[in-house]
Each structure stands twice: as C-alpha cells, then as structure tokens.
Amino acid sequence: MAILETKDLKYSYPDGTTAIRGMDIEIMRGKKTAFVGRNGSGKSTLFMLLNGTIKPKDGRILFNGKQLGYDRKSLRDIRKNVGIVFQNSDDQIFAPTVYQDVAFGPTNLGYSKEKVREKVTETLEYFGLTDLKDKPPHHLSGGQKKRVAIAGIVSMQPQVIILDEPLANLDPVGADELLDVLNALNDSGTTLIISTHDVDLAHNWADHLYFMAKGKVIGEGTPDKVFNDPELIREAHLKSPITLDIYHEIERRGLAKPNQHPTSVPELVDTLKPPELMWVEVPTETLEGDVLNLGVLHGEYALQSPYEAVNARVLHMHSDGRAVVEVVRHGIKAGGIAIYDIEQYDPDGFQRIMETEEIAMIGAMGKQSKMLAEEYHIPIQISSGVIDRTLLMALCGKRCLILTSGGMISHSMKRIDEYAQRSGIAINVSIVNHD
Ligand SMILES: Nc1ncnc2c1ncn2[C@@H]1O[C@H](COP(=O)(O)OP(=O)(O)OP(=O)(O)O)[C@@H](O)[C@H]1O
Ligand SMILES: [Mg+2]
User: ∠ CA 224-228-233 to the nearest 5 degrees?
Assistant: First the structure.
C-alpha cells in the first residue's frame, strides 16, 4: 500500500524557477525507495514538498490516502510522521548542544522528561554520539553534524524517514554504519526514502527507484529494471553500477551464468560458472576416470583442502603428476556465520564460542557493537560491509562471527538467509548467545 503519493505535483520557487513539473509517485509502506538524478533535477524540492516544508503550486500530496493540509495542526501531524533529514545539516541543527538537538523532537512530541532522557540517551548511544553530547553542533565536523541530524529525526520514530543525500560527507565505514542503522529501522517497519548520486548504493540498497530529470520522473521500477536500460541511464546523467559492469564483462567471456543481476559482491560471485576443465595436481596413483574431491585452498582448486567445493573426473593423467579434470558437480560445502548479541556479552561464554566454533574472523556491525568490542578487548577484523564480507568468507568454507545488537540481529539473519536461498548454497547462520 502507498504511504505517500503525489498526483501531478508542481512547484516553482518565488524567483520563477520551476523545480517540479508534474510528478506522480507512489511510495510503498515499509519499503526502501531511492531517487536519483543529476544536480538540479528536483530531488530536494520534492522531499521538502513531501513533508509539508514547502507548499505545492499545483497537484496533490497524499499521506496514508489523505490529502495533506497546510494548517498548523495538519503540518504538525505530517512532520511527526514524515521526518526529513536535509541535504545540508546546517539547515537542520540549531540547538546549543548535541544532546538538546536530539532531544528537540521527542520533547516536542510531548514525551515526559523521563522518556525524553531515555530516548535521547539510547539514540546518542546508537549513533556513537555519546562522547559529543555536550558539544555545540556548529563545532562538529560535517560527518558528525550529519549523524546528529539523522539521530534527531530517528529519535522521533516517524513512520517515514526521508534522507536527502544521507551518505554525503560520511567516511566509508561511517556510511556503512549508517546504512546498517537504516536497514535495521526498515526491518522494524520504517519506510525509507533517500536521494543519492551513488549508483552502486541505489542499485544495491533500494527496493524501488525513481530516476529524475528536470523536475520529472523519467523512469522507475526495481533496480534490476532501471539499471538495465542504458538509454534511461544516459538520460538520467548516471552510469552503470560497478557490479553490473563487471558482470557483463565476465558474462561476455562465458565465465558467468547468463541473465543475472548481481547487486553486491557475493551475488556477483554467485554468477560465476565453475570451470569445466582444469589442470590440478593429483597423487601419482590416480587413474583416468577417478572422481576427485576438490576444495578451494589458497584461492585455487586443490586436493586436501578441508572444504569440499567440486567433484572432478580425471580425463587425462599427465606424467608430471598433474591431471586434466572435468568438473562434474558443483557442491560447495559452505562455512557459516555466527551472530553474537554483544549486549549480552559474557567473557567465559564468548571464549567458549571462539574455541568451539572455529571462528576465522570477527566482524562488528553498528557503532555501538564496535564500541563495546573495544571495551571488551575483542579484536575486530571486519568493520564495514560486514554481511557481504562474512558471506564471501562462508563461500570459502570459513566461519565468521558477527558482533551486533538490537534490530541489526534480525536484519543480518534475514540478509544471510536470503542469500543462501537465492544461491542455493547452505550457509549455516545462527545466533550463538540467545537461549
Ligand atoms: N531556493 C531556491 N530558489 C530558487 N530556485 C531554487 C531554489 N532551490 C532550488 N532551486 C532550483 O530548483 C531546481 C531543483 O533544485 P533541487 O535542489 O531540488 O535539485 P536536486 O535534485 O536536489 O539537486 P542536487 O543533486 O544538486 O541536490 C534547480 O534548478 C535549482 O536551481
Ligand atoms: Mg538536492
């Protein structure tokens, strides 16, 4: 069902610039929608229209099927339900301290003093802002300001959160942490809308995309659909996502399965065809016709790897101890991913898990998990792209541990399960410290 809709929406700025020239969009409840389009295409203007910050010249906006009103009560109502994080944080942050800024929303919602304090403390913690809570926002760095602005909106728990270029200004790990937070919010039902110039992000993250140009929608649909239309990509002044570029190149060379649409590195890996014929080192007593079990060892197919990857029939024994083999079955025995709720850390239990689960690498998801890991002296090897990178390790038969908490737990489980289902590779995933 659509939570936000526009019908023939139009807007011109007081100086006469027409920014929105008739837009019809439908934002689905609980989904992640991204708007992409070149500078000046109207994304920020549209976003300000969607939560009543500015009033359309023509056309309608519907929230939950009801037309937006512009009296004080209606505006208060829409702004409570549709939170917006502006492109420029200076337009958003004005309280004297970070704490007061994040407290502004919950206080305005009429929460009790207690509840405000609880909510703000929790949010600051979640965004890793606790240490900055007494600083004046205008003394923060650009990325820190952005985190404060987002925290201020998240603390109000709106049904819809609109983020105008949320990752601009954030360092790569910080951007990844923000995406983890957003994904966890989305998993618990929050509808998300972003604008971005990052085609890889739009392709990988969004459920639905709108391509905009000159104040209009020029294309929309699933990322698969819109990013497979070169004409549309050009018209929108965009470029093709990197996973698709690589996929098309390897597919053209016959190395990948046809008609796939990988949006992430693990999905790209999953499109690869196993080699049909290859040379491998084999014991001298091997006979032609034998079926060998090969695994991936140091990145190559080899015997005596602990992880079964393929079965191979020996077609030709060569005198130097190598054989030409034909791959007869692709049956990866994948590793697994253990998820550890860091909020329930106990040192003995943790030690036991590390010993019994044969953990090759530890990843931490979320700012809070990283801070707790540091406090507990747990060494972290993976701090960004945690799900994708642990999936890739699992594909090589390794086991990884993800330290995380709250809504990110169910989000990770879901993402890993989805990948296992789609690829048909049984990747074992479990929460190891919940009863
Ligand atoms: N306050 C304003 N007064 C007059 N014109 C404006 C104003 N703000 C934006 N515009 C114009 O409206 C059009 C749409 O701008 P908008 O900021 O919505 O684009 P955008 O898609 O968000 O661009 P970007 O990717 O650079 O953020 C542009 O032509 C811009 O010059
Ligand atoms: Mg903009």
Answer: 115
